[in-house]
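Duplicate of earlier report; TetR/AcrR family transcriptional regulator input re-posted below.
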Amino acid sequence: MKEDKKEIILQTAEKLFSELGYDGASTRSIANEAGVNMAMLNYYFGSKEGLYKAVFERRFKGFHQTLISLNEEDISSWEKLNKYIDLYVDKIAAQNCFQRLMQHEISIQQRSEMGSFIVEYLLRNINEIRKILREGIENGSFKEVDIDLLVATLFGTKYYIVNLSGIASALLDKDLSDDNILNTDIKPRLKKHLKAMLESYLKPAACINN
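Output:
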């Protein structure tokens, strides 16, 4: 029951921080909406900053463990890469508000310690996709490429869809603020696009010629 309350607090905090920002969302308003008292919130998280960090840590750790498990699977490098794209795009669609909150926190640079905390966790997850790409290059499944810029391309596409949704909505002629459109239209299109782009870019020349 206590763990359920902790999870409810984290879910509520993520929602309010996403809507109101760090400064706009008070711990009292989070506690009230979560249906808990301030004593319980402080017991679990200690402070507003502790709660804020816990919101990010919850998301990062869960996805990081998923990526570690993916890298341990006994499947081909191409299968790992395609699974990664599915997981990555599903995460973007399911955590749309959190993605905006994360990018906002990095961009404002008002809390340098928090920004460093986020970047550190992001790099842990990025290292897992780097492992897939390096493995594929080493076993001959992928051609030699600039891994860092390829990862930047993947993240740049995500940033455009999530953080520049107004421009992306106009370009794609779809309302990306509509969760139904995001999940039924944009998500499958994005998966297909990223997989096709990666296949075109990574497939060795001999495979293309054949």
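The chain has two domains: 1-46, 53-202.

Merging into the original ticket.
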